[in-house]
Design a protein that fits this description.
With 377 residues, the chain is mainly β. 3% of the residues lie in helices and 41% in strands. The protein is built from 2 helices and 28 strands. Strand 25 and strand 26 (350-353) form a beta hairpin.
Length: 377
């Protein structure tokens, strides 16, 4: 059964950022000029200088975030920021009418790891794209802390992946693959998956309607029985099943195991990992690496999320900027936290989730996971 959309409001579930306050003498100014050289903005907005764009900068060393809006000349100015290495992200939504249908385009741009240690000006290019259709809306990988009187250490069987239909059309989950990736493979064409599991169906068996989502559980049971502050996943729509000693909830549909490198369950790392959605005609067509990792083409990736406990470690990202230009997470293991995609806007009462291909700005941190719900801060 698909879980209907609910909105959780007014709860203080989001993470507070660390405050860093060096003296004013150490601070500097940054100007970012946003430009679109593809011709899209010139045609639809009258200029290649992009105004009203949201420009985000995040300090790699200190985790601080700043944002502002570009002016009529495409300039976004940041005053008195901390000298550091920065990631810069730009986003603007543009609605155009095409063949009597309104389409919401996103102008996206990213600049990774810029050294800003003096007053600085840079140019950031943006490119038009349609928001993602099938998205990972929430990822709970963190695990639950021990809780009296049970004191079960390192409980991670309550992990889940929530997937959302962000489009106006029905999407069929049949044959969509969920995979988590290995680190350290500089390959322009392929990703290297540790585990890969595919939704069942022959093409039109598992429809996902606009504004609906499904929950994919590591184990589809009520985990609050073992750890009271965990989550109840007995109502999940799908679950991973490896075989052997793995839990198999008979009332929940199993994913099809494509590749499983190790473990008695499909376990995402509680520290750092990358999870993707993809679809290919033949999942075995691209072969394996020498380290028993299954290969998939990057062009087949539908959505991806890259996370780490230490957000400063951008050099260890598993996804390149074409899939996810940022990182989410930034918290220790076994804190019962999840990462949840932000709501960008509402369209005819349906939430459209943020998709800039950048987890640094698309996701927020929740102090407790919310399987089957969207969080609106």
């Amino acid at each position: 059964m698909y879980i209907l959309l609910f909105i959780i409001c007014g709860l203080s579930l989001f993470r507070c950022e660390e405050t860093v306050s060096p003296p004013n003498s150490m601070r500097l100014d940054l100007k970012v000029t946003v430009i679109d050289t593809t011709g899209f903005s010139e045609e639809h907005c009258g200029s290649d200088l992009v105004d009203s764009a949201s420009v985000y900068i995040n300090s790699i060393s200190y985790y601080t975030n700043n944002d502002t809006i570009s002016d009529s000349l495409g300039n976004a100015t940041f005053i008195q920021i901390i000298p550091d290495r920065y990631n810069v992200s730009i986003s603007k939504r543009v609605t155009i009418n095409l063949n009597e249908k309104n389409l919401d385009y996103i102008l996206n741009g990213q600049i990774q790891d810029v050294n800003i240690f003096d007053d600085y000006a840079l140019t950031a290019h943006v490119y038009p794209s349609l928001p993602g259709q099938l998205l990972i809306s929430e990822l709970y990988y963190n695990g639950s802390p021990p809780q009296p009187p049970y004191n079960i250490p390192q409980y991670f069987h309550d992990q889940f992946t929530e997937i959302y239909n962000n489009s106006d059309d029905v999407i069929y989950l049949d044959s969509v693959i969920v995979a988590d990736l290995d680190f350290g493979h500089a390959d322009e064409d392929f990703i290297y998956a540790v585990h890969a599991n595919m939704f069942p169906g022959s093409g039109h068996d598992y429809p996902l309607y606009p504004g609906e989502f499904i929950v994919l559980a590591q184990d589809a049971i009520d985990h609050t029985v073992a750890v009271p502050n965990s989550v109840n996943l007995s109502g999940a729509d799908f679950e991973y099943f490896v075989g052997g000693g793995d839990v198999d909830q008979p009332n929940v549909e199993n994913m099809i195991k494509i590749h499983h490198k190790y473990g008695i369950d499909v376990l995402y790392s509680v520290f750092n990992d990358a999870v993707v959605l993809l679809k290919v005609k033949d999942p075995y067509a691209y072969g394996y690496s020498q380290f028993d990792l299954i290969l998939f083409p990057k062009s087949a990736v539908i959505d991806g999320v890259d996370y780490r406990d230490n957000l400063a470690e951008v050099e260890y990202k598993r996804l390149d900027a074409s899939i996810d230009a940022g990182l989410t997470g930034g918290f220790e293991a076994y804190k019962n936290k999840s990462v949840h995609r932000k709501i960008d806007f509402y369209k005819n009462g349906r939430a459209v989730l943020m998709d800039n291909n950048n987890s640094s700005i698309d996701f927020q941190v929740l102090d407790h996971p919310t399987p089957g719900y969207l969080f609106d801060e």
